[in-house]
Amino acid sequence: MASAPGLFITFEGGEGAGKSTQIRLLREHLDALGRSCVVTREPGGSPRAERIREHILSGAAKPLGPFAEALLFYAARRDHLDTVIRPALAAGQVVLCDRFSDSTRAYQGALGALDPELIRDLDRVVVGTTRPDVTLILDVPPSLGLARAARRRQDGAGDRFEAEPPSFHERLAEAFREIAAAEPERCVLIDGTGTVEEVAERIRSALEAGLPALSGAARDVA
Ligand code: T5A
Fold first, then answer.
1. 11 CA to middle of ligand 1, Å?
2. 100: burial class by Cβ within 10 Å (0-12, 13-18, 19+)?
3. Is 11's C-beta closer than 6 angstroms to any atom of ligand 1?
4. 3-class DSSP state of 104
5. Is 42 in the pocket of ligand 1 (CB under 6 A)?
């Protein structure tokens, strides 16, 4: 194990929770603090993982079931970790990642009924010690998130997961709250309602409270 500076911050939440918007604003804030950031996303974030993303979000993998989908997410995650996340952390950068393993726990685990033990095992093998330092979970009523996502998309057509029924999205929001409650030392539940600036302020306050070393922290990476 090599010791290297860097910070790994993940954003989680239901559809249209405002993650991408808040990542953009946090990046600007961190730039102003003099921290070099890498903004990335899952599924995807590297050329090979983006190919897997297309396959999953088109719905082509849905008939294969949650187990096969989870393996695809972890195949993409492995490449993303190896080619983007670990090199950035080793170079002392702040990695801001739109979704990570908690999405697999919520979508394929809580919603897809995949055995949590299996997800833990996949995570141990693929993620190892490269776990997020902080996870910001944006909490919005599902109807608000879906309306935001549809407005942004304009034609109103949802992807593989947006097309699921309202009960799916209610359970999803609950699953993310459960993850936040189970790991309070890593996860912060952020109220995602209100204006973009109000949410950004909540995020900055949470990070300042939990990560005083944000302007120069060090972490160990695998
Ligand atoms: N998935 C992913 C799994 O099932 N398992 C996994 O392991 C992983 C990693 C990814 C899908 O894959 C699933 C989960 C997802 O379904 P995606 O296309 O990347 O799909 O979609 P999402 O991650 O859900 O991201 P979205 O782009 O839909 O939502 P965001 O990023 O949360 O929201 P954002 O910032 O784009 O905002 C949406 C709209 O709302 C506006 C924005 O301007 C934008 O138009 N907005 C606000 N409007 C008013 N007030 C605010 N406070 C606003 N904040 C944003």
1. 10
2. buried
3. no
4. helix
5. yes
**Smallest CA separation from ligand 1 atom 15, residue:** 161
CA of 99 to the centre of ligand 1 (A): 9
Cis upstream peptide for 212 (omega within 30°) = no
- Alpha-carbon dihedral angle through residues 55, 60, 64, 66, given to the nearest 10 degrees: 60
Which tens digits make up the pLDDT trace of 42-53? 999 999 999 999
Q: What pairing do the DSSP bridges indicate for beta strands 94-98 and 7-13?
A: parallel
Report pLDDT digits (tens) over 32-42. 999 999 999 99
Tens-digit pLDDT profile for residues 85-123:
999 999 999 999 999 999 999 999 999 889 999 999 999
Give the per-residue pLDDT at 118. 96
SS3 55: helix
Encoded amino acid at 206, one letter: A
Confirm whether pTM is higher than 0.90: yes
Closest CA to 93 of 214, 208, 206, 205: 214
Q: Which residues of 36-69 are buried (b: 16+ CB within 10 A; e: fewer)?
A: ebbebbbbbbbebbbebbeebeeeebeeeebeeb
